[in-house]
UniProtKB/TrEMBL annotation:
Pfam families tied to this protein: SBF
GO cellular component, one term: membrane
Protein name as it appears in the record: Bile acid:Na+ symporter, BASS family
InterPro entries: BilAc:Na_symport/Acr3, Bilac:Na_transpt, Na+/solute_symporter_sf
Bilayer topology: Multi-pass membrane protein
Keyword terms: Membrane, Transmembrane, Transmembrane helix
TM ranges: 12-37, 43-60, 72-94, 100-120, 127-149, 161-186, 198-218, 230-255, 267-285, 291-313
Subcellular location, principal: membrane
Length: 323
């Protein structure tokens, strides 16, 4: 039974994008299935995702922050400068309505996504740098995300910066901290690596539940507004994500990073924690329910695009290898 669970976890980690998209399509056809994923339930599920992240982090991962301060500084600045600015620009270029603007701005102001570490590994990036960037952006998120939302979206809606700070603290920092504590305390036990091996699958299932809950929430609005609303929103998410990859790589180039680090910073900047954005939109922008739509699309698309980009980097390496 345990081997089956481990195999399932590996399959889910390898096919995360396919699984999440399948859940999204299924929920669109039968919206009531994930109707329970709302409010506090959604927050708890995100907390579980962050707990799985903490369970895989070690003290060595946090030492990276001290050992490579310049790399982490460049990465953090790129993360919290490029994505909010690109989101702000796209809101104006696409002339988005307030609800959709809030959603894409929120995605842009969130920290890097957890699955970016996996993508960095797949494309032969600098995994230690990736973990360090994820840790740094997650630790900075309680302050940076509310501050950036106040700057970029304050004219659209009143931002509860203190409430957002506390919410991010509860659903990210505390679960990650608990996971790290458990890892530090029980990592010497033989059974603990087995628990860790199941975490990728748990994380994917939790993210799929969040996406399913969001699709259930916006289902009626999507039906009422038609396919055009989805296509228009997806176009914005696609541009935001793609420009994040491109400008992230450019920032690595300007910093004179090697190839592995340029790939890593590209993926770290482009892939956002859209699950966190989804929970924040549901909690703080409930009066604008369509603000959740860009977050839900980002949840699915970032996994797809990250997999595609990692595959392209792999193909590039194969072409350069001598026969």
């Amino acid at each position: 039974m345990l081997k089956i669970l481990q195999q399932t976890s590996r399959w889910l980690a390898s096919n995360a994008s396919f699984f999440i998209i399948a859940v999204a399509v299924f929920t669109f056809l039968i919206p009531g299935v994930f109707g329970w994923v709302r409010g506090n339930t959604q927050t708890i599920i995100l907390g579980m995702i962050m707990l799985t992240m903490g369970l895989t982090l070690t003290t060595d991962d946090f030492r990276i922050l001290a050992r490579r301060p310049l790399d982490i500084l460049v990465g953090a600045c790129a993360q919290f400068l490029i994505m909010p600015c690109v989101a702000w620009l796209l809101v104006r270029v696409f002339r988005l309505e307030p609800a959709l603007a809030l959603g894409i701005l929120l995605v842009g102001c969130c920290p890097g996504g957890v699955s970016s570490n996996i993508m960095s590994y797949l494309c032969h990036g600098d995994v230690a740098f990736s973990v360090g960037m994820t840790c740094a952006s997650t630790l900075l998120a309680p302050v940076m995300t509310p501050l950036l939302m106040e700057l970029t979206a304050g004219a659209i809606i009143e931002i509860d910066a203190i409430g957002m700070f506390l919410n991010i603290l509860i659903v990210t920092i505390i679960p990650v901290g608990i996971g790290c504590f458990l890892n530090y305390t029980y990592s010497h036990r033989k059974s603990f690596p087995t628990v860790q091996s199941l975490m990728p699958g748990v994380s994917v299932i939790c993210l799929a539940c969040i996406v399913g809950g969001v699709i259930s929430t916006v289902h009626d609005a999507l039906i009422a507004r038609g396919l055009l609303l989805f296509i228009w929103t997806f176009a914005v998410v696609f541009c935001h994500n793609s420009l994040g990859y491109l400008l992230g790589w450019t920032s690595g180039y300007l910093a004179k990073f090697n190839t592995a680090k340029k790939r890593t910073i590209s993926i770290e900047v482009g892939m956002q924690n859209a699950g966190l954005a989804t929970v924040l939109a549901s909690t703080f922008f409930a009066v604008q329910p369509l603000s959740i739509l860009p977050c839900a699309i980002s949840c699915a698309w970032h996994s797809v695009s990250g997999t595609i980009l990692a595959g392209l980097f792999q193909k590039w390496d194969e072409r350069k290898m001598p026969d």
